[in-house]
Amino acid sequence: MSGMDWIAIGTLADIPLRGARCVNTPQGRIGVFRTAEEQVFAIEDHCPHKGGPLSQGIVHGASVTCPLHNWVFSLETGKAQGADEGSVRTIPLKVEDGRLFIALDVLASKAA
Amino acid sequence: MTERLVIIGNGMAPGRMLEYLLEAAPGRYQVTIFNAEPRVNYDRIMLSPVLSGEKGYEEIIIHGDGWYIKHGITLYKGHRIVAIDRAAKTVTSDHGVTEPYDKLVIATGSVPFIIPVPGNDMAGVLSYRDLDDVNAMLLAAQSRAKAIVIGGGLLGLEAAAGLQSRGMDVTVLHVMPTLMERQLDPAAGYLLQKAVEARGIKVMTKANTKAIVGHGKVEGVELDDGTIIPATLVVMAVGIRPNAAIAKDAGIDTNRGIVVDHGMRTSDPDILALGECAEVGGQVYGLVAPLYEMARVAAAHLAGDETAGFVHSDTPTKLKVTGIDLYSLGDFADGDDREEIVLRDAAAGIYKRLVLRDNRVIGTVLYGETGDGAWFNDLKKKQTDISEMRDTLIFGQAYQGGSPLDPMAAVAALADDAEICGCNGVCKGKITDTIAERGLTSLDDVRAHTKASASCGSCTGLVEQLMTLTLGDSYNPAAVQPMCKCTDLGHDDVRRLIKAKGLKTIPEVMQELQWKTSCGCAKCRPALNYYLVCDWPDEYADDYQSRFINERVHANIQKDGTYSVVPRMWGGVTNANELRAIADVVDKFEIPLVKVTGGQRIDMLGIRKEDLPAVWSDLGKAGFVSGHAYAKGLRTVKTCVGSDWCRFGTQDSTGLGIRIEKFMWGSWTPAKLKMAVSGCPRNCAEATCKDVGVICVDSGFEIHFAGAAGLDIKGTEVLGLVKSEDEALEVIVALTQMYREQGRYLERIYKWAKRVGVAEIKRQVLDDAEKRKAYYERFVFSQKFAQVDPWSERVSGKDKHEFRPMASVGFAEAAE
């Protein structure tokens, strides 16, 4: 196997601006976020603090605030911002002609 | 025996005089005031912020009605004195009230000068003098049409900026070659003109008005070169004249104003005059500082101190237009005996000029950067020899004595007798001493005790720095607590500016108010969204991405990411059909927990997000709508069974609760709003710890509010007793609307009430029928757009994406 296997998950238009949708995978839920500046990011949909669904949070800049206890995460790095410590896994994502693809290495090995 | 003191006029000067007098000689006089304006004493300097929308009338009141009552002063509002009978020692008002006096104070102020051109009496020609003028301008501004301001002085420019920020297309006509020529040299006047024009206001200098044209009402202004500029509103702000007519009629000596000696005494020993109507030492005054000096002197004489005398001093001029910094003081004309130091920084838009004579500052003009104004004023006042620091003088105080200092150090370095508040003549030492002696901790306290920053407010920053200096880190400038890290503005400023500037979208707010982040944060966005929903109910499109998840999906998120659903049960009343529908839903969706809430509703917990629309669909078929148990909005109205069933019940509390809930459901509020109606004082519905509660009694309905039973526990305050259900509803709705318009986001009603004051709320929603009606009507209007059941909307497909995963990938069946 060379490079990554990209899996189609939908289109940019499926996600509201400054919003998020989630994608179910065997390893758990992934949040896919679209920022006001039309950047798209995918991260694990599970706050390391108390497991809050990050995809339900408010998206601001390239960050999201967890709906349960207001931890803020960078969508780019997955790191908690401010005084909180912790991080979520980021998932490779690419946009081609408005279509979105994510790469899940473990998935790829399973499918092979 | 108490002497009778009668005062004609109720402006800032006599108001201040009374404060001094009540302190120096309490109980000596029985005071009666006649005010031609139908209102209490307010801060006339702040009319420009009222016009621009940065402040409201309530915020500029100096003495409220309560103050007059407390001091036993009789205030005749809307009474103009038409005659003074010096022989009988009486005055008579236009309503026929005649009042005897032992001492009389004339404080009739000034009248605006109306230029003698044809058409100057047409409808649409206004002056800029009192609140009535401001209200008339606000009314005219609603048309968003063209306005002309005649006069490019202080008042004219403030009026122009205010009208422009209200959406009018404004042209300023000024007869001289540069703006504010009495306070600014031509260079600064030019910079000012550029700045005014950059705001979108047109400026025409050397413009001589020939006539105001129109048929019955204003259509434009004709200049002497024949040019006609169209406009529907003309504001004349070309100057004021002392209003000395009544004194002149009574045979008192007058010149330009009412002639007084340095003790404020007129030619009649029992009559004093002060304020803009008085002429002392051949001069008349229009700025507040010398008028307050007159107030001090007049009060001293009335209290028996014959030695007090008025001392002339120069007063700095500041323009109250947000974003334009300008300071002018003293004499800045050119002359052979004078030297000047000038600093220009075109890129930064800074111009500073000092005028010196014999190595002493005699005049200052600062534009663009005015922080050193107080220091230059101090040098001038003390006649300090500046030859030692001449090379760096123009750079300001921070550059004296070697290395530059931070602004706090500059304030720390000020002498104790350096003047901080020009309006009230308060120096640094007075402020720091008072803070220390009285243990003051808030800006409001400092204002109350020292008067510093209590008039025009332009020294607020300095006063706060002094508080920090005196109190160290323990001073928390609560007055300017920013909303969040995205802005320096507090909630109140943001709310006011949204209205004043007509901001109608979140990006517009962020752009116009200079947000520091590109799209806000999880703190400010929901707040802004609420403010816009509240202020523009018909125009604003709710931004769901700025709502917390609960309000976005209309259910309460739980710790495991599932949701709870609470259908509305009006007044806590249900029936077999509803209960059956709930039971069916619980079975069908295998809902793990069903629980009765503290607000008498049924809560179904543990529902998967994907199931929400289907759950609502089934509940909707049984007639349920959303219970808004998740909302910063009206939650529940809890009731007891009332007179229908209870042997103690005095009124139909259940019926009233249902009526209130049906009327008010769907409205958004700053924080959650819980209500209750109890049928008798035994209070089974626990109304006395709710945000709003009603206790029914035999004689009617006692309305309570501002209770809390959460993080804080607090009994309610009593708003008042009303006789009928209709009145109860109107008062509760008006109260809620006042809270909606003034509350800070997430501020519960009890915290808001503490901040605003129970008495003030009572005054506005209970005592003042007109205000109550206006609040009520605004609420009713906003409900037209708010009472849409969010559940049925979503059952019909709105925000579908919210409830479904975008995709499921990588599972065995998906991979094949």
UniProtKB/TrEMBL annotation, chain A:
Residues 7-102 form the Rieske domain. Its EC number is 1.7.1.15. The keyword Ion transport does not apply. Pfam families: Rieske_2 (PF13806). SUPFAM superfamilies: ISP domain (SSF50022). Keywords: 2Fe-2S, Iron, Iron-sulfur, Metal-binding, Nitrate assimilation, Oxidoreductase. GO terms for molecular function: nitrite reductase (NADH) activity. This is Nitrite reductase (NADH) small subunit.
TrEMBL record, chain B:
GO terms for molecular function: nitrite reductase (NADH) activity. Residues 631-771 form the Nitrite/sulphite reductase 4Fe-4S domain. Residues 317-383 form the NADH-rubredoxin oxidoreductase C-terminal domain. Residues 420-467, 483-532 form the BFD-like [2Fe-2S]-binding domain. The keyword Iron applies. Keywords: 2Fe-2S, 4Fe-4S, FAD, Flavoprotein, Heme, Iron, Iron-sulfur, Metal-binding, Nitrate assimilation, Oxidoreductase. Its EC number is 1.7.1.15. Pfam families: Fer2_BFD (PF04324), NIR_SIR (PF01077), NIR_SIR_ferr (PF03460), Pyr_redox_2 (PF07992), Rubredoxin_C (PF18267). Pathway: Nitrogen metabolism; nitrate reduction (assimilation). It is an enzyme of class 1 (oxidoreductase). Residues 558-621 form the Nitrite/Sulfite reductase ferredoxin-like domain. Gene3D superfamilies: 3.30.390.30, BFD-like [2Fe-2S]-binding domain, FAD/NAD(P)-binding domain, Sulfite Reductase Hemoprotein, domain 1, Sulfite Reductase Hemoprotein,Domain 2. Residues 4-289 form the FAD/NAD(P)-binding domain. InterPro entries: BFD-like_2Fe2S-bd_dom, BFD-like_2Fe2S-bd_dom_sf, FAD/NAD-bd_sf, FAD/NAD-binding_dom, FAD/NAD-linked_Rdtase_dimer_sf, NasD-like, NiRdtase/SiRdtase_haem-b_fer, Nit/Sulf_reduc_fer-like_dom_sf. Its cofactor is [4Fe-4S] cluster; siroheme; FAD; [2Fe-2S] cluster. Belongs to the nitrite and sulfite reductase 4Fe-4S domain family. This is Nitrite reductase (NADH) large subunit. It comes from Aminobacter niigataensis.
